[in-house]
Design brief:
The protein is mainly beta. Helices cover 0% and strands 50% of the residues. It has one domain.
C-alpha cells in the first residue's frame, strides 16, 4: 500500500506486508514501512529482514542487492 500527499500527489510512504511458505512447511510473514522522501525504513517486523535489500551499483554498473543490515555511511549509501 502507498500513502500519497493528497495536495501534491507526492508519494510519501510504502507499507509492505507479505506472507510466504518455506519449503519446510513453515509460514513466514513480515511488514515494513519505507519513507520515500528520506529513503529510510521506519519500521520492520516479523521476517522482513529476510526480504529487504539495499540495491547498490557494482563496478560494472549492475544492480548489487545487499542485505538491509549492511552498514551504511552518512549519506545512506550502502557500503560493504
Amino acid at each position: 500500500m502507498r500513502l500519497w500527499d493528497a495536495d501534491t500527489g507526492e508519494p510519501l510512504r510504502i507499507y509492505a506486508l507479505w506472507r510466504t511458505w518455506r519449503s519446510e512447511g513453515r509460514e513466514e510473514d513480515g511488514h515494513a514501512v519505507w519513507d520515500l522522501r528520506t529513503n529510510e525504513v521506519l519500521h520492520a517486523g516479523g521476517d522482513a529482514w529476510r526480504w529487504l535489500r539495499w540495491v547498490a551499483t557494482d563496478a560494472d554498473g549492475w544492480p548489487d542487492p545487499l542485505p538491509l543490515e549492511t552498514s551504511i555511511n552518512g549519506d545512506a549509501t550502502p557500503t560493504r
